[in-house]
Amino acid sequence: MKNNGYHNQYYDYFKKISFILPALLLLLLLTAYPLYQVIVMSFYDYSNTDNPIFAGAENYARFFRDPLFWKSLINTIVFTVISVAFSFIIGMTFALLLNQPINTRFRAVFRSVLIFPWLTSSTVVAAIFMLMFNPFGLINHFLGLIGIDSLAQTAWLGNEKTALASIIVANIWRGFPFMMLMLLAGLQTIPKDLYEAAELDGAGFFKRLFYITIPSMKNIILTLATLEFIWNFRAFDLVFLMTGGGPMNSTEILSTYIYQFAFRKLDFGYASAAALFMLFIMVTLSFFYIRKSVSKGD
């Protein structure tokens, strides 16, 4: 009887696995083999594309010696950290406002309007902000109206001191609605009794925020922060469309850096090594996210 129990247990386990096996095989085919090819390419020198030469670990040593690589890495970290931080602050602000006891129809309309940036394609977002940050665009027009003439003619995307900040603003505008929706869903799971008890004890808004809201949503916030960090760290489209990494490499991030070497200089070996370094960072963050998800499930 005991053996039959084990047999039935393994049979049920295999039956469950068989449902996802086709999708798993397809996923391995579409990801594992290309990844294997990238790993192999990272050990070759493609300066002569007709006959690649085995270069060992030279490609890996090379990008550690490249000052532009480190500049791209710093730009990527700055772009990611600021985007995630401000997306959280703005998203939490709107989530708290939408969570107030207001008319449900008004809340639905307001939520639909606020989610619009997230639904907009990167091409449209880039076009909108390129027009806004144009020397004769809306931003400079507004600065002129309030009397800040020293900045009213600034080419925001053409100035190496302001280009990255301009892209970050566009990225925050596009990304905060997702954070808002997820945080709003989390806020609606917090029992109202906790807030009522805190109000009776004389706790103000900020005390309720820091002692009830944020601790109750700790797992949601950590999960969102990890996902947003991964998504922003691998960002490419917005930066490429708005500046292409310029001016003077001031907005060069790891994804555009890899693109330049892979598809413009055709240095596939070096680009593959840099891409694997980027993948290593994202996989490390993914393990953190998976561990948090598993521990939350337990």
Q: Quickly count the domains.
A: 1
How do the helices and strands follow one another from N- to C-terminus? Answer: HEEHHHHHHHHHHHHH
Overall structural class, as computed from helix and strand content, comes to: mainly alpha
Overall residue-averaged pLDDT value: 86
Major sheet details: 2 strands, antiparallel
How would you describe this protein?
The protein is an all-alpha fold and 298 residues long. The protein has one domain (67-297): MetI-like fold, CATH 1.10.3720.10. 75% of the residues lie in helices and 1% in strands. The chain has helices spanning 2-41, 58-65, 67-98, 104-114, 116-119, 122-132, 138-145, 163-187, 192-200, 205-216, 218-233, 237-242, 254-264, 268-297, and strands at residues 44-45, 53-54. The protein has a two-stranded antiparallel ribbon with strand order 1-2. Helix 11 packs antiparallel against helix 14. The radius of gyration is 25 Å and the shape is flat. The model has no long low-confidence stretch (mean pLDDT 86).
